[in-house]
């Protein structure tokens, strides 16, 4: 997590009686990972967070892979998937392995359900849309271009300004981190890092919601959703402190690192997970050597797979992509610019591209659900 934060009312010391002026005490809850040794926060509730009145199975979330083992690149036109449903519960998966799972959703419900992903941290890239992410920690405003980083186990809900929202979701089995090489030994972001603490948006405190009733929380675990009905509103928090909370980062605040000649993809790295990285390709000036080729060179990266999600219809090295496209290049084959794109890039001064790349270190599986929007002509699209 980024850094220590505190909101609302908290007692002078941890684990002491924190008197509720209405009588009794506030109820302390530690939310964190890695068994009391990872990042954590302490939250103070009006009611015990353990007051569960009902537990019901909602649905299984099987991520069915295609049976073919043929090795081929893919172009998924994910923007063509039909809209509908809930931001958390109605996602379409397209690639996964045991470390990372990728999905998209076009939610039409503007107020989403209470949800917590207890099996993965989530990075939600808002390709289109605007709204507020609510949680016991407060509210986070977002608009298109924002990454929302939601640690596992955090109950949250979305409020969208319209039904025209498109989210690209990265679920990480390991903890999502800011790359270590961007931080000094105190954890502070370095002067040379492409973003700083000022670019990280943390929750704005809200008054505790003092409501009793039935509050269904949809919990993802074991690749299924279980509904836990809480008796008290999950956002009944009077204060919290710690380093475990949802946060947001606007891709437009990623300061691109450019050079005289082509810089390799690690300069675009934004987040790290176990077995994958997330990179941001943002509008930037191109390389300034007089004979530089700004488009990338062909590459065969052993033990690395590339997924590019395009949030605009411009990209320096590819043709035929559109908003919502995703190209997948598996390990084992060369990839590179489409014919003409390298030549076309020579002498260009800048690019307006906007894309999110997920590179994994272990092979991915293609989901059946994505094959309906797969472009069958893509593997041959380098032929002239
Ligand atoms: Fe690549």
UniProtKB/TrEMBL annotation:
Residues 112-251 form the Homogentisate 1,2-dioxygenase N-terminal domain. Its cofactor is Fe cation. Homogentisate binds at residue 335. It comes from the Bacteria. SUPFAM superfamilies: RmlC-like cupins. The active site is at residue 262. One of its GO terms (biological process) is L-phenylalanine catabolic process. The keyword Oxidoreductase applies. Keywords: Dioxygenase, Iron, Metal-binding, Oxidoreductase. GO terms for molecular function: homogentisate 1,2-dioxygenase activity; metal ion binding. Pfam families: HgmA_N. Fe cation binds at residues 299, 305, 335. The keyword Oxidoreductase applies. Belongs to the homogentisate dioxygenase family. This is Homogentisate 1,2-dioxygenase.
């Amino acid at each position: 997590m980024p850094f220590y934060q505190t909101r609302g009312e908290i007692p002078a010391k941890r684990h002491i009686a924190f008197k509720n002026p209405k009588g009794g005490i506030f109820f302390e809850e530690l939310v964190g990972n890695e068994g009391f040794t990872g990042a954590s926060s302490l939250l103070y509730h009006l009611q015990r967070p353990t007051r569960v009145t009902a537990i019901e199975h909602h649905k299984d979330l099987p991520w069915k892979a295609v049976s073919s083992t043929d090795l081929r690149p893919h172009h998924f036109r994910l923007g063509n998937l039909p809209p509908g449903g809930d931001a958390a519960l109605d996602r379409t998966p397209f690639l996964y392995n045991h470390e990372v799972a990728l999905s998209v959703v076009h939610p039409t419900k503007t107020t989403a359900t209470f949800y917590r992903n207890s099996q993965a941290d989530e990075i939600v890239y808002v390709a289109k849309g605007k709204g507020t992410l609510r949680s016991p920690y407060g509210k986070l405003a977002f608009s298109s271009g924002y990454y929302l980083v939601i640690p596992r186990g955090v109950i949250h809900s979305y409020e969208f300004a319209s039904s025209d929202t498109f989210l690209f979701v990265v679920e990480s089995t390991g903890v999502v981190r800011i790359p270590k090489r961007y931080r000094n030994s105190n954890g502070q972001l370095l002067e040379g890092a492409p973003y700083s603490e000022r670019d990280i948006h943390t929750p704005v405190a809200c008054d505790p919601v003092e409501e009793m009733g039935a509050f269904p929380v949809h919990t993802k675990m074991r690749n299924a959703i279980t509904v836990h009905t809480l008796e008290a509103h999950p956002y009944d928090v009077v204060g919290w402190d710690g380093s475990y909370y949802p946060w947001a980062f606007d891709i437009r605040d990623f300061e691109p690192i450019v050079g005289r000649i082509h810089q390799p993809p690690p300069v675009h790295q934004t987040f790290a997970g176990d077995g994958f990285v997330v990179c941001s390709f943002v509008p930037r000036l191109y390389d300034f050597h007089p004979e530089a080729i700004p488009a990338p060179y062909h590459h065969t990266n052993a033990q690395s797979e590339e997924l590019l999600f395009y949030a605009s219809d411009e990209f320096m090295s590819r043709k035929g992509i559109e908003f919502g496209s995703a190209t997948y290049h598996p390990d084992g084959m060369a990839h590179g610019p489409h014919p003409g794109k390298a030549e076309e890039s020579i002498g260009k001064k800048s690019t307006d591209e906007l894309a999110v790349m997920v590179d994994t270190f272990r092979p991915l599986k293609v989901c059946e659900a994505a094959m309906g929007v797969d472009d069958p002509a893509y593997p041959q699209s380098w032929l002239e």
